[in-house]
């Protein structure tokens, strides 16, 4: 069965990896496991979850605007810094061009809660920036410093200060978390939170991803023009 992906010019075929075969996903630059989408002509490969990822999502970390899946960064540098983990990226990303929010695809689909062998309790994802402390805070798994600007997993049990990097907590992705492309007749959305971790059920939209992205760019241009006009107006008054 052939599969057409928006990021590649040729049809892809679903392929089951054989023992010992090693391929790298072009969507996230991580090693491929199990089943992949493949173009053998171009040696182009995608994880099944990268190939099936929604073109846009309403993500609980950025509820103001939908995030649009882009095959390459929208910046002149050709790269982005992930708002979730702080690491650079140069391939697939979920972005909000209006707010300059960028997420690795696998960061966008991190599970809301996980269990880790190094801790007795379940740990929950936290999207919110934390207050800068007088002394650095360190990951309880790798012992390296935790950035207050990036996501982390934490223990919600009273008196437990266990907190770790997202990439130390898990490599699991759950691409079905925010998938909903169908119009919602009720026009409402629901969300549930556990303190500062969100498990968000998005409000659906009938607009296509391309229309959403075009509208965002238009709003961004309008905002930039308004700022420039304001600067000109202020300079003439001086």
Automatic annotation (TrEMBL):
The keyword Aminoacyl-tRNA synthetase does not apply. Keywords: Repeat. Coiled coil: none annotated. It comes from the Eukaryota. Residues 185-197 have a biased composition (Low complexity). It holds the Pfam family C1_2. Residues 60-108, 117-169 form the DC1 domain. The keyword Ubl conjugation does not apply. Residues 178-197 are annotated as: Disordered. This is DC1 domain-containing protein.
């Amino acid at each position: 069965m052939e599969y057409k992906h928006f990021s590649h010019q040729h049809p892809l075929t679903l392929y089951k990896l054989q023992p010992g075969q090693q391929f790298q996903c072009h969507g996230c630059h991580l090693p491929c496991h199990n089943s992949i989408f493949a173009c053998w002509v171009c040696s182009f490969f995608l994880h099944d979850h990268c190939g099936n990822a929604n073109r846009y999502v309403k993500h609980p970390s950025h509820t103001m605007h939908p995030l649009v899946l882009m095959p390459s960064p929208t910046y002149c540098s050709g790269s982005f810094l992930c708002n979730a983990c702080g690491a650079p990226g140069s391939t697939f990303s979920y972005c909000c061009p209006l707010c300059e929010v960028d997420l690795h695809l696998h960061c966008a689909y991190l599970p809301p809660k996980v269990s880790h062998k190094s801790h007795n309790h379940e740990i929950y994802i936290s999207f919110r920036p934390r207050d800068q402390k007088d002394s650095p805070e360190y990951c309880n798994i790798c012992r390296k410093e935790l950035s207050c600007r990036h996501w982390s997993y934490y223990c919600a049990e009273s008196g437990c200060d266990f907190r770790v990097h997202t990439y130390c907590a898990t490599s699991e992705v759950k691409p079905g978390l925010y998938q909903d492309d169908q119009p919602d007749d009720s026009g409402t959305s629901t969300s549930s939170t556990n303190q500062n971790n969100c498990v968000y059920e998005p409000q659906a939209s009938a607009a296509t991803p391309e229309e959403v992205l075009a509208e965002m760019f238009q709003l961004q241009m309008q905002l930039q023009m308004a700022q420039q006009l304001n600067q000109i107006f202020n300079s003439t008054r001086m």
